[in-house]
Write a structure and sequence with these properties.
The protein is 51% helix and 17% strand. By secondary structure, the protein is of the alpha/beta class. The chain has 3 domains: 179 residues, no CATH class; 94 residues, Beta Barrel (Elongation Factor Tu (Ef-tu), domain 3); 133 residues, 3-Layer(aba) Sandwich (Rossmann fold), CATH 3.40.50. The strands form 4 sheets. It has a 5-stranded parallel β-sheet with strand order 9-8-7-12-13, with helices on both faces. Strands 1-2-5 form a 3-stranded antiparallel β-sheet, with helices on one face. Strands 4-3-6 form a 3-stranded antiparallel β-sheet. Helix 2 packs antiparallel against helix 4, helix 3 runs antiparallel to helix 4 and helix 8 packs antiparallel against helix 11. The chain is elongated, with a radius of gyration of 26 Å. The relative contact order is 0.09. The model has no long low-confidence stretch (mean pLDDT 92). The structure holds flavin-adenine dinucleotide. The site of flavin-adenine dinucleotide has 23 residues, from strand 4, strand 5 and helix 13.
Amino acid sequence: LAPRGRGPARARGVLTVLAWVWPAVPVVAWLATGGLSQAASSPAGLLTGAGILSGLVATAIVVEMLWLAARVPAVERVLGHDRALRIHASLGKPAFLGLVFHGLFVVAGYALADGLTWWGEFGQLWATNDAALAVVGLLLLAVVAASSVAMARARLPHEVWFGIHLLTYVAVAVSLPHQFTMGEVFASGLAAAGWLAVWVVTAFVVLTYRVFLPLFATLEHRLVVTAVTPVARDTVAIDMSGRRLDRIGLEAGQFFTWRFLAPGLWWHGHPFSVSATPDGQRVRITIRRSGAGTDLIATRLRPGTPVLFAGPYGVFTERMRTTDRVVLVGVGSGIAPVLSLMGDLPVRPGAATAIVRAGSVEEIPHRAELHTLAATRGVRLIELVGSRRRHADGSASWLPEGARATSLRDLAPDLADADLYVCGPGPVREQVVGEALVAGLPPARIHAEAFAW
Ligand SMILES: Cc1cc2nc3c(=O)[nH]c(=O)nc-3n(C[C@H](O)[C@H](O)[C@H](O)COP(=O)(O)OP(=O)(O)OC[C@H]3O[C@@H](n4cnc5c(N)ncnc54)[C@H](O)[C@@H]3O)c2cc1C
């Protein structure tokens, strides 16, 4: 089991530096067009300058957010899909507040310079098309921001939240003209050409990776459901076949976003990981019923249904391994990618441990296959079933009642020298990661796939 090196830690460093440096680029353009001297010239200039600066930095952050969510392969490989989306989400608040600040301060600055009230100045700006469009863009972003606040997001069906989120692209588009026609930073010359190029490239990247490539891949591979089979309580496996699947670019442990093209199913897409090691012939996913969408898929999907997909995504793969030992932990529906990964690891007997955690034995998907694969590949397989053990303080452990082990380390004594792969929904996964960190495992050796964003 030869280790594969340090993975993309260095690339992640480069991306981090780029992310911090990029917002300074439009600020440099502002300085080059005399922004600082104008800001220092009067109180009105100071207000306007602060507003413009805030808008420039916030817009640069919006560009970063679009790239993070665009499924760009380099970003996906380096950060991982879930982390890219988490960073994307964390940038939403500063970007939105920066744009609000921009609007308030620019209007205040102009009002002071023109001797008008704030409202009077707002009314004048509203009369110019581009400023009015920018205000509409900001209002749309406010709706998006409100829908993404944790409390609202938890209550909204995913599809509704996603639909609202698409308004971001409209908001960005309608706010574009004022960036070029109002103010001097991108009014002409190299700065204007460069800023236009940033938007053209960003639009191209978003359309390519989110729309065109998934459509091309769908048409190229023509995936069709061949079987829907119950494989555990409330869980079905979906087998699909198609054309040239050896060229689909799939690695064990990855996931796609799937849309089954049948009445009642086509309008909701869901991320599901592959549950079989890729063999170039078929793709299998395993779905646990956990809500309205998965219920519909499990009960209505029939063989012969064509499938639209986007992906593959995710870094829960053999490629990320850095040592010659592996501990795999699959929690509930997270057992699916663990199974697919087990078939992919070049295992030396005893060098890999797979822990599957479920509410009961009946909830372990593909149980017989798991055992056979573990036996043939020399993987130590540990099944942990039952409800979560309660600590004395009332908090719940990820381990079940009745288990003799008290920690991940008890189950996998070689943990400190291994790579940990942990996958599945919710707090159990988080606790496993927490225990691994406490056991001294460096974060670079922990490969965790969250089953929610
Ligand atoms: C990377 C990844 C891989 C996954 N792999 C598997 C797998 O192999 N097997 C499996 O059973 N489950 C998997 N899941 C979980 C699965 O996607 C959700 O359980 C499913 O989408 C829930 O949809 P629902 O309508 O049934 O439930 P809902 O009640 O609508 O949602 C339940 C939860 O899933 C989230 N969710 C719903 N739809 C989506 C969506 N389109 N995109 C992202 N999150 C969504 C909701 O925000 C909510 O947190 C995976 C999730 C992710 C993020």
